[in-house]
Backbone:
């Protein structure tokens, strides 16, 4: 099994979360090359790119759901 040791670093935001659209756009720009690299690696390992992307969306939704459940419990 190949283990990813580093997928790259995520740049620190320069926008405030209160600048929602600019903040979100900046986040997309920061994460896009990392996501592209991850999908490239999954595809190189033999996974279908569409399946890998769909799985990442599912896992991301799980993370958000788990985070919101944790914050409502506290």
Residues:
């Amino acid at each position: 099994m190949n283990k990813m040791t580093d997928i790259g670093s995520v740049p620190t935001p320069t926008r405030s979360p209160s600048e929602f659209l600019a903040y979100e756009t900046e986040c997309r720009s920061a994460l896009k090359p990392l996501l592209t690299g991850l999908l490239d690696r999954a595809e190189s390992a033999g996974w279908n790119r569409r399946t890998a992307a769909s799985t990442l969306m599912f896992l991301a939704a799980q993370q958000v759901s788990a985070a919101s459940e944790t914050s409502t419990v506290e």
